[in-house]
Amino acid sequence: MKKRNMVLGMGLAAALALTGCSGGGDASGDGGSGDVVKGGTLHVLATTDFSHLDPAQGWDGGVNNFYRLIYRTLTTYAPGNAEDPAKIVPDLATDLGTPNEDNTEWTFTLKDDIFFQDGSEITSEDVRFGVERSLDPAIAVGSPYAKILLAGADEYGGVYEDGHLDSIETPDDKTIVFHLKEPFADFSSAVAQPVYTPFPADGNVTTKSIDKQPISSGPYVVTDYKPGSTIVLERNEYWEQGSDEVRTANPDKFVWTLGLDNSTIDERMIADQGDDKNAITGIILASSLSRIQEPSVQERTLEGLKGCTTYLALNTTKEPLNDVKVRQAISYAIDKKSVQTATGGPALADIANTMLPPSVTGHEDFDLYPSDENAGDPKKAKELLAEAGYADGFELSLDMRAVPVTQAQAESIQESLAKANIDVKLNVVDTAKYWQIIGTPSQQTDAAIAGWCPDWPTGATFLPPLFEGSQIFDQGNSNVAQFDNDEVNTRMDEIRAMTDVDEANKAWGALDKQILESAPAVPLTWEKTVTVTGSNIANAYLHIGYSGGIDYAIVGVKSVDE
């Protein structure tokens, strides 16, 4: 977010209006009766573990939301109950930073009373160390907004090998200065990313230690972690509410129960018994939608847009997907109506024909590969395949996660493409390792079902990570299609250099269309959040900045059992 507030598109404004609360639309977010109280234990029921507890490695909406409880960055998203949750606000820093005249140098001043979990004060050296550590090749698989933006970061081997990065200066304990490769007016938003988390510069922090035992700068510390089973957070006694305008840290404790089956979670949330009255979860199954219509469950239901795009990434380095006509054929062949049904129907997803979702400012509405009722056009697909020399079709391997919704989507794609003589083999990947595998070019296959949510709602955090040639990395690669087009790369540079935000937003929307003409990906759906909370949950707001999940920073309970 720039120093000025983001101008929200109508799609985002509508999405925020839908993010409601656990009170049947009651804007107070208090679950319909009673205010949030301090104390108690809040339970989170989940199917899988987080990808990484180390913010240098994890990078998705769910884990970023979790990170907000144990880590702080220079800036962060406003809380979910704010008038504009998409706004970036100061966190460890006193303000949104001061740029020089051409936005290539940014200076931040740290607040007073900010501490690690051992009581030591957080200094500018700790912020610097955290960023430098995140650039170490051994762990640099998370957010790319340090590697991409900081001068010299491309050749830098991390603090353990190369010492300090020259483009970060710490003139005193409270001041940190970043020198960028090129002008970037959104740097205030970039430093809200997890890779800008501080860690003790003079501590025993290694590339592996944080994933096993995080060092908290936020309101909670990890007191128990059994991978795949349990995560327990308890209060950080050195966190100061006075230095934190975002997190309210209502519960005394958070307990994650991991590895549960989706249907089991839905049963427990609907039944609302025992500790589950104090529980929250993710999106419910499509098969449970009819069961949540009962009034007592409806008043505990939250609905809203995730602000993300689910898409099929086509590996443009693999034959025959390196042929644009083949990729265009796939774009025509896919029955998106079937994919929407597989996702849960209109209640859980809208059909997507553009990469940029409606929640992104500058979104343009278009459809380059139309078909009757979005059911696919296998005839057109076969014509293009014949022109490309594949009249008899070909075989394609599709990476997918081992979760019911993704499996249903993959099977739908498999059936669609079979009608165009494309034989799809499903490659099932463990969910906890999925993003790491498809983000490692040497490990991915021909195609993958992926999703992307903007780091802040502009095309600048959507199209470059997915389609810019310079963002193809050996690991931590978000350009899963490995798309490297000179015209597109040049246009991205031109848009980033624009000083008029409205002009830039419009240009990103137009570039979306230009990219899809080359068909490196097939937009499938814009998914929605539908979730049920326990009856004792209060202040539950869906947050578009965290993939439509409940904002952990402010949620709590209505009452605490004595």
Automatic annotation (TrEMBL):
Keywords: Signal. Pfam families: SBP_bac_5. This is ABC transporter substrate-binding protein. It comes from the Bacteria. Residues 87-471 form the Solute-binding protein family domain. It comes from Paramicrobacterium chengjingii. Residues 1-27 form the signal peptide. The keyword Signal applies. The lineage of its organism: Bacteria, Bacillati, Actinomycetota, Actinomycetes, Micrococcales.
